[in-house]
Structure formats: C-alpha cells, structure tokens
Design goal:
mainly beta, five-stranded mixed β-sheet, four-stranded mixed β-sheet, 3 helices, 45% strand, globular
C-alpha cells in the first residue's frame, strides 16, 4: 500500500495542473512585447545573493543577476502564458547548460516536459550541477573534468534552480519546465515573442531571478498583439504562484 501511494504521488507530480487539449492551430496568433523595469522602481543592487526557501526547501542562498538596458528592458526574464486550455503540442526540446569560465551559460531557459538537458563542462576544473525543484534536490551531478557531459530528462513542470556548490556558489542557472509550448526568455533588450497561439484571451506572467514574479496581465491575442509587462512597486507577487512551482 505504501509503494502504491508513493507511485500515485509521483504520477501526480508529472501531470499538468489543468487539462490541455492539443489542437491544430489554423490561424496562429502571436503575443510580443518587452519586460520593463522603470527607473522609478528602486532596486538594491548591492544585495545580489539571497535565499528562496519556498523554492528550495531551506535557506540556501543563490547569487542573482540583473541586466537592464538604457530603456528599462530586462534581459533574462521568463514570460509564460498561464494554463492555456488548448494549443499546439508541447514537443520536447534539447537544452544545453555549459560550465564555462566559472559560469553557467545560459542562466535562464524554458523547456517542455520530456525535454533533454545536457550539462557540459568546458572548464579544466571540477564542477557539479545541483538542481532543486519542488523544494528538494532534483539531481546532483558531478562534471569532474573538461568535456564531461551528462544528460537529464525534464519530466516534471515547474521552476528548476541550479548551482555549482563545490566552491563556485556564484554559478547559478534556472530552467522553467511547462506542459505547453507557450513561453519565452527575454533578449538583451527585454523583448519576447510567443508564437502559435489560438486566438483568444490569455493570462501572461513574467518571472525574473532578481525581480521575482510579476502579477499576471490579461491580454486578448489575435494576429500579432503587443503587450509589455512592466514591473512596478505594487505588482510583484509576494509568494510564488502554483504555475511557477509546477503544482
């Protein structure tokens, strides 16, 4: 009975929180825009390492990075359509996380469930990739020498945080895993583009490793729709939402 209950719990964590119908999208729509941090929002840039116990299950600190261009565009933010009811199939992707010059590259990625994450060491030093999801360790892999490569299949939805904790604790990266394909990471100018949506009304949200989660914005998408996501002092979510945690 105990083994059966554990199996049910494991299956529950691999299923999306809501029903998602895979359909042919005859007239695909696009939502695009920027994630913006206005100059009047004050950020303590001297405080670049802080804990996220709600994500990792304990007071582990992670070094954060914030890149904002002259017009306020936030690089490396994740933008997600929250719980769409239908759309294109979530085809698995191939992601690569490179250990290079004592840094993880890239810092932020998005993936669909079933995607493959390849972890590669290009440094001539010992690294590891310690990953956390759902408040506990997801895996902890050693990359002991240059050109070491390991793979992990991303089976469960939600945000994954990764750190090299063998003397390189500043090395941090994130992957968000979703049951649908409608998500993106902003470029150096803070721009994002999500294609292939059925026309309709959606909730659009953003998360950034330093700035946190932005309250969702409702947008009607048809054709190509512009929608900026702007951080203000009063629209950041205090505790991570279930969509971000994958619960």
């Amino acid at each position: 009975m105990i083994h059966f209950a554990a199996l049910l719990l494991a299956v529950a964590h691999t299923l999306p929180a809501s029903a998602y119908d895979v359909v042919e999208v005859a007239n695909p729509a696009t939502v695009e825009g920027r994630v913006v941090l206005p100059p009047d929002v004050k950020i303590d840039r001297h405080h670049d390492s802080f804990a996220s116990p709600e994500l990792f299950g304990h007071q582990r600190e992670l070094t954060r990075e914030l890149k904002v261009d002259e017009s306020g565009g936030v690089a490396g933010a994740m933008v997600v359509v929250i719980d769409p009811a239908r759309g294109r199939a979530a085809t698995p992707r191939h992601l690569e996380l490179v250990n290079e010059d004592l840094a993880f590259v890239p810092r932020m990625q998005v993936a669909t469930m079933g995607s493959d994450l390849a972890m590669v060491n290009h440094d001539e030093v010992f690294h590891n990739v310690h990953a956390f999801q759902h408040g506990r360790t997801l895996f902890n892999f050693a990359l002991p020498k240059v050109d070491s490569v390991l793979h992990h299949k991303l089976r469960r939805p939600g945000l994954i945080a990764m750190q090299c904790d063998v003397g390189h604790e500043w090395m941090t990266a994130f992957v968000y895993v979703s049951f649908h394909p409608y998500m993106a990471v902003t470029d150096e100018a803070g721009r994002f583009r999500i294609d292939g949506l059925p026309a309709g009304e959606y909730r659009l949200a953003a998360w950034h490793e330093w700035l946190g989660e932005l309250a969702p914005v409702t947008v009607h998408v048809t054709g190509t729709t512009e929608q900026d996501l702007v951080y203000h002092s009063d629209n950041r979510v205090a505790q991570p939402s279930l969509w971000l945690l994958g619960e």
